Amino acid sequence: MRRKFADWLKDETVFAVALVLAIASCFIVPPDAQYATYIHMNTIVQLVALMIVVCGWQRVGLFHIIGSKLLGRSHTERGLVLTLISLTFFSAMFITNDVALVTFVPFAISVLAMANMRERTCLVVTLMTIGANVGSMLTPIGNAHNLYLHQLSGLSTAAVMGIMAPYSAAAAALLVIVTCVVFGNRKIGSFDSVDSDDIERSVLAPSTDMQPDEVRTMGFGGWRTWVYGVLFVICLLGVDGIVNKWLMLGLVVVVMIACDHRTLRKVDYFLPLTFAAFFVFIGNMRRVPEFYNIAASLVGSHPISLGVGFSQIISNVPTTLLLSGFSDAWRPLIIGTNLGGMGTLIASMASLVSYKSVTRTYRRQKGQYLLTYTAVNILFLVVLLGLAAIIEPTGI
């Protein structure tokens, strides 16, 4: 029992911390009727609905199949790496950065081994992780804290995308430059006799004991893929307030029960619970005048720098929830918490997915991965902060 609790605590550290903070704050501000106003239900409901739909797509193997088809067209080292980075960069805009990394990093590790590029794994996965983080920051549904800020600020989807577009574009250009400089056009000989179906079989479904509901499954998606596509459109309409949030969630749950009820058990419900716990903590601390005045003063002075700095220590989702409780400077908060996803390994919790995938396969490369990841991330963070200083000189 103690071992299980320790494993759970290791996996859900952020939720555990949020829960402790929420409970502790209840002793400072005893529960009352005002607690009912703390939870931002729009964010919670929309987050859960999107997570269910994306999980459904994962379980029919949609993203793996798309990846294998694209990789079947890559015949050089540079082309292969650009394709892998593109998979996380573009998919993260719609399925979130953590899902993009969970899906494509293990896939990439296997593909790189097939291409005899094992020694490049740390750098390629680092670039893929950055790709996911800078791609996800473009859209309100690309990551959880963007969805929250989109709802809290009342900004339109186009407005949020307009704020982050220069940074995503600059990061994409830098990713291409780094890839072209580091990786040459050497032909991948081991791919000559391999097509996309071979990649799919050898990388995505190495087991002969496949089940129709596994993420690695090939060919079992069929009509479910299209049904989930319709649900995804409904979720997008819900994010923009066109479809009622409860109707949206109800449709998603009912349809998923009919299509694949096991999906509902695979969703990571600790993420919305983490949000709820932070909502309680921040709601209570806002009612403590001394704490509120100090926090509001700090956030108001340097929102971008504070967003980036706090993210390096507690990651950007908790930073977003914390800082947004004491400032309505939405534009610099959006920029700061998104750029803050680069830097340290924990700046974006999604980045831990990549670290665990690499070190699980190559146990002796923990130090090399951390060094590579940190160095490359600092490069990107410095460049994007320089861009922010030009675009938002008063927000830094």
Automatic annotation (TrEMBL):
Q: Which GO terms describe its cellular component?
A: plasma membrane
Q: Mind telling me which residue stretches traverse the membrane in this protein?
A: 12-30, 36-57, 78-95, 101-117, 124-143, 163-183, 226-257, 269-285, 292-314, 334-358, 370-391
Q: Which domain of life is it from?
A: Bacteria
Q: How does it sit in the membrane?
A: Multi-pass membrane protein
Main subcellular location of this protein, as a coarse class? membrane
Name a single GO biological process. Answer: transmembrane transport
Q: Which InterPro entries match?
A: Cit_transptr-like_dom (IPR004680)
Q: Which UniProt keywords apply?
A: Cell membrane, Membrane, Transmembrane, Transmembrane helix, Transport
Where do the Citrate transporter-like domain residues begin and end?
Answer: 16-323
- Localization (cell): Cell membrane
Q: Which Pfam families match?
A: CitMHS
- The protein's name in its UniProt record: Citrate transporter
